Amino acid sequence: MSAPLVLVSHALCPYVQRAAIVLAEKGVPFERLDIDLADKPDWFRKISPLAKTPVLLVGDAAIFESAVICEYLEDTALPHLHPTNALQRAQHRSWMEFGSALLNSIGAFYTADDTALTARAGEIRARFQHVEAVLGEGPYFAGECFSIVDAVFGPAFRYFDLFDAIGNFGFWDGLPKLQHWRHALARRPSVAGAVRPDYPELLGKFLLARHSALSRRMASMDAWA
Predict the structure, then answer these.
(1) What is the percent of the chain with per-residue pLDDT over 70, rounded to a whole number?
(2) Where are the alpha helices (DSSP H) in the chain?
(3) 123 — alpha (psi -120 to 50), left (phi > 0) or beta?
(4) How far, in whole angstroms, is CA 56 from its chain's centroid?
(5) SS3 for 167?
(6) C-alpha span between 180 and 76 (Å, rounded)
């Protein structure tokens, strides 16, 4: 891979984190360029038809959508993070899609009003139960080998560091394999390094601004008052 790489990013975007993790796991040098999605520059609109991050610039060429970026990196840089077996590789891609659905449930949770918050938490737990059922002994999704599925779930789990500090929503009860996986991912240097040091503060401010049931709970806490 000879062309310089630029990962066009947003500081809080979990999809950006996926690409950053894969780049780090493969040891591929890249520049990260954060933009303000509330005030998108014209040059970004030209390279991102969906007006979303991430976009990977490979020289003058642009690749958008995190799954496509991860697959491009898998095709062009070692070590491989997908299984070599075609069926297992397809199964991993299925769980990558499941990880995207989990992010949708997380968004519904942190924007929920008081009447829906418990139900949205239950939806997340139901998704977690599906994952628990397929996990082995770990420490990662496929055992000892870190995969792109891990790169997908690491950013999703990061939200729960803050959610757990706000209250006990019953996400983890009776799910020991999932908890073990979550903590193993948090310790992985590529996952930890996929966000800026001020990520927790930025996420807290973002959630407070949602004017949701969760943000009202945050506002009543000393840490966020």
Answers:
(1) 99
(2) 14-26, 42-47, 66-76, 86-110, 117-134, 148-166, 176-187, 189-192, 199-208, 213-219
(3) alpha
(4) 16
(5) coil
(6) 31
Sign of CA dihedral 5, 36, 54, 184: positive
Would you list the DSSP string of 18-67? HHHHHHHHHT---EEEE--GGG--HHHHHH-TT--S-EEEETTEEEESHH
Measured distance CA(106)–CA(13) in Å, rounded: 13
Tokens of 197: 């040091």
pLDDT in tens, 92-102: 999 999 999 99
Residue numbers annotated as active site: 13
Q: In angstroms, rounded to a whole number, what is the distance separating the alpha carbons of residues 219 and 225?
A: 5
Query: pLDDT tens digits for 191-217?
Result: 999 999 999 999 999 999 999 999 999
Hey, how many other C-beta atoms are within 10 angstroms of the C-beta on 105?
Answer: 18
What H or E segment, with its residue span, contains residue 5? strand 5-9
Tokens at residue 163, please?
């959610």
Residue 224: pLDDT over 90: no
pTM over 0.70: yes
Nearest CA to 151 out of 124, 185, 179, 122 is that of 185
Cβ-proximal residues to 178 (8 Å cutoff; 6+ apart), any chain: 128, 131, 132, 135, 172
